[in-house]
Amino acid sequence: MLALLNPAVPKTKMKNWTSLFAQKLRSHRIGSGRHGRMTQEELAVTLNVSVDAISKYERSLSYIRGDLEYQLQEKLGWSLEDVVSCREDWEAGRAQHSGSAYRLLNNQEVINEFGGSSSAVTQAVACMEVDDGDGLPAGFSAADTVWSDIQKSGLLSGPYVMLGSKIVGHVGLIFPKSDPEKSFHELLFDEAELTPNLLKRPLLPGDYFAYCPAIYVARGHENATRLLLSGFVSELEELLEREIFVREIGAISVNGLGTQLCEDLGLKFLGAHQRYAGFGVWTLHCSGIANSIVGRRSAKLRDAYQSALPPSYH
Fold it and tell me: What is the CA radius of gyration of the chain?
């Protein structure tokens, strides 16, 4: 289930810190333009953002949206390495200078944080579920026992973000076998019907169907979203190192914010769910990964999914 809680929250002002992004953007602006210096207004038009956004960028109060990062390369001529360096510096600096201490953990690390209890992890994720899961069918709620069983089996992977002792963000990833995959494409996929024996753990090199059952961000912790996305990219990179390709990522949106999230991530609408009114079925084919926000964030994934996939996928 994809549902992202995203209320407006005040931005924390960071003192005595200038981000690499702010430095590089200002340096580019004062060294460009028709008269040797580009105005903030001209740069705003170039990047298709507001003048206020440019001002915040240069004062290290904000960072360019992930879906606009590519314009730094296309419009300003920055290299992907430059963009990645600016992003990583921003994420590290924001955590340090805003008083936050978000931590990115993998599945085993987060289980260790909860004393080895996978059930405790599932309960912690359920605590931050949008609207406490009210009105969601069985299985689509993070509190459903199906997810505790799958967590215990070790078949649920994906990054977690913690602040102190609390989980404040999570992206799940599972690998269904052929029957659940078929039901997904028939728009009949039901998370309540999942059991560990219907999932598999990628072991050998090859291409696999992956399903994203949840993207959760706790209320008031939207600043953790970028770190969570970085963790998801790292997850795909680790799979790639084992020569495991994701031929398709499937997801189901359960509300308007989930729909927006699917669109922002570059997923394509497959159709309306046949059992649950208002639910949408979405897919990101491997041929689209290179040009998605995932590919834009990782040169390794971009290159691999452009050139290393079997010819039938191009």
Answer: 20
